[in-house]
Structure prediction request, 226 residues.
Amino acid sequence: RREPLSLVNLRKRNLDSGEEELASRLDHCKAKATRHIFLIRHSQYHVDASLEKDRTLTPLGREQAELTGLRLASLGLKFNKIVHSSMTRAIETTDIISKHLPGVCKVSTDLLREGAPIEPDPPVSHWKPEAVQYYEDGARIEAAFRNYIHRADAKQQEDSYEIFICHANVIRYIVCRALQFPPEGWLRLSLNNGSITHLVVRPDGRVALRTLGDTGFMPPDKISRS
Prediction:
C-alpha cells in the first residue's frame, strides 16, 4: 500500500479542478530517492551453547566480522544507519562491523531475530520445527519485511544506504518476498557467515538484487556457513 494512489484520499478530491489536482497530489506522494539495503548475515558462532546469550562469536567469526566491516567501509558509501537483530551473535557482529563505520547509528530490534519464516517447499528432513513456530516466527519476520523493505518516503530527497545485520532464514525470506518469488523457496538459498546481500528499491517500487551472499572479499579459509 505504498503506491501513490493509495496515499491519496480520493473522497476529498475537488470536482472542479478534476484530474489536474489529482495529478498534483499523486506527484507529491511519489518517491524520489532509491534505497540501498545491505543484508548482512552474522558471523560464525558457537552453535552448541544451550542458552542464546552464550552463543557468542568464535575466533573465526570475529575475523569474518572484521573482514565484512572492512569491505563495507571500502565501498565509500555514506551509510545512514545499522539495524540489527537483538540476538547475541548479531549484536557482536554489529559491534565489530560498526568500528569500521564510525558515526553510523545502531538500532536493535526483535523483529529481525532468527526463526522459521514459512514451511519450506520442498520440505527437508534435517530441519523440522514445530508447526506453531511457523505461526509465531512467520508473522514476526513478515512484519520485519513490511517494516523495512519498501520504497523511500516521498520526503526523502537523497538515496539512502542502510545496513541490516541479522540471520540466514530472515535474509533468505526477505529476498524471496522482495523479488516477489514464492517465499516457500527460501530454504533453497544458501548464505555464508558475514556475507553481504544487496537489495535496491527504486522510487517506482521495483526491486533489484545486486548481490546475494557475497563473501568474495574473504580468503577461502575464512569462509563458513554454520
Remarks:
- The first helix runs from residue 19 to 29.
- The chain has two domains: 1-29, 32-220.
- Helices lie at 19-29, 59-74, 88-98, 131-148, 168-178.
- The chain has five helices and six strands.
